[in-house]
Write a structure and sequence with these properties.
Helix content: 25-40%
Largest sheet: 3 strands, mixed
Number of helices: 4
Oligomer: single chain
Structural class: alpha+beta
Strand order of the largest sheet: 1-2-3
Shape: elongated
């Protein structure tokens, strides 16, 4: 008579021990990677802001030499090829690419307005002495960027 082969299978207790070990490992490893998305968004915002601000500075330098208004208008800023050579970057928090004009007070306070429609805020005054421009992201989500007091900045403070 043939004997059954049940001796080769895992018991319920062995399976439960393996699942508990996997659960413990997941509980240890997952928190280490939970901030990776936040770090990526913070880095993307910093890179996008640096790129646009650098393009605005380049535009300003050329126009100061030429004796024309220093900073681009919103239309000039968003027209591909005038200030930026590529499409306007997406706001990593809202996925919006549109730029809206804001007042000086709103720009200084880094106010977030119409975040569902606009990804970026831009204040420009070429008539001021000296001309002024402020460009910032239209989102106030927390980032992992450390401020001078040891806390963290929100996206619109970058």
């Amino acid at each position: 008579m043939r004997t059954p082969r049940f001796g080769r299978a895992f018991s319920f207790i062995e399976l439960m021990v393996v699942l508990v070990i996997i659960g413990i490992l997941a509980a240890i490893i997952l928190p280490r990677f939970s901030g990776v998305t936040d770090d990526a968004r913070s880095a993307a915002v910093q890179g996008d802001l640096a790129g646009v601000r650098s393009a605005i500075a380049g535009y300003r330098a050329k126009n100061v030499i030429a004796g024309t208004p220093a900073y681009p208008t919103i239309t000039q800023l968003t027209t591909q090829g005038l200030v930026l050579q590529a499409d306007f970057p997406k706001n990593p928090y809202t996925q919006q690419t549109n730029v809206q004009g804001v007042s000086k007070a709103q720009a200084l306070a880094r106010q977030v307005l119409n975040a569902d429609k606009f990804g970026w805020n831009y204040y420009v005054d070429n008539a001021a002495s000296p001309p002024e421009a402020i460009f910032y992201i239209n989102a106030d989500e927390p980032t992992n960027v450390v401020d001078s007091s040891g806390g963290t900045k929100t996206a619109n403070e970058l």
